[in-house]
Write a structure and sequence with these properties.
PRTase-like, single chain, PRTase_dom, 5-stranded parallel β-sheet, Rossmann fold, DZR_2, two-stranded antiparallel sheet, ComF family protein, binds zinc ion, about 35% helix
Length: about 230
């Protein structure tokens, strides 16, 4: 349908609706939503990226967990405009927000440098066929451009996992165990990218596969984090 295509094209170049609240806007976010971006600022836990009362490495949230990644960072709390932004990219087709809005925010949350490669958390083939894209890959491409690193599809989802929403931490870990594998050898310092950090189970499983395939160290970066 030509009309739909032209509207989509116009939306792409001249977004008219706020990705969060759908109000008319001159940019991807209206002014009110922009001012309400739930940005995660220091002090945070240097290990898991959770907002903290003071700078620390290891907090109540992550202290008893064994992560394969060195540290995790997130740009926004998974709440309000942050949650809407994830949903806009993932479910409402506003994929331009990944490159133009999410990636700069994520690059800004990153305090590590010198990554050899950026690897998105993969979607299982069945799910990516249905959705048509992998939101983690869109975010990884945007972030990679910002930090001048290359993107690699060194990970693949070897089996379909149940939706993590509503699962307890233990069930989440069991759900993703062995669900990802590396393709061939991996080398150097890897930045692993996903949309949301909840318990860290998915990122941990992916980081484990990357380390097992030869990565020196893995850092995790997400657009949002549950806090
Ligand atoms: Zn808005
Ligand atoms: Zn922590």
């Amino acid at each position: 349908m030509a009309g739909g295509y032209l509207t989509a094209l116009a939306d792409f170049f001249y977004p008219q609706r706020c990705v969060s609240c759908n109000a008319r806007a001159s940019d991807l976010l209206c002014r009110a939503c922009y001012e309400n971006l739930p940005e995660i600022a220091a002090p945070i836990c240097g290990r898991c990226g959770m907002p903290a009362a003071f700078e620390t490495y290891g907090c109540d949230e992550c202290g008893n967990q064994d992560f394969a990644f060195r540290a995790a960072r997130a740009a926004l709390r998974y709440d309000g405009v942050g949650k809407e932004l994830v949903h806009a990219i993932k479910y409402r087709g506003r994929v331009e927000a990944a490159e133009r809005l999410a990636a700069p925010l994520m690059a800004g949350a990153l305090d590590e440098r010198g990554f050899d490669v950026v690897v998105p958390v993969p979607l299982h083939r069945m799910r990516s066929l249905r959705r048509g894209f992998n939101q983690a890959e869109l975010l990884a491409r945007g972030v990679a451009r910002k930090i001048n690193a290359r993107v690699s599809d060194k990970l693949r989802a070897v089996r379909k996992t149940a939706d993590q929403v509503g699962l307890t931490a233990g069930a989440r870990a069991a759900n993703v165990r062995g669900a990802y594998a590396a393709r061939g050898q991996v080398a150097g310092k890897v930045l692993l990218v996903d949309d949301v950090f909840t318990t860290g189970a998915t990122l941990d499983t992916c980081a484990r596969a990357l380390i097992g395939a030869g990565a020196d160290e893995v850092f995790a970066l997400t657009l949002c984090r549950t806090c």
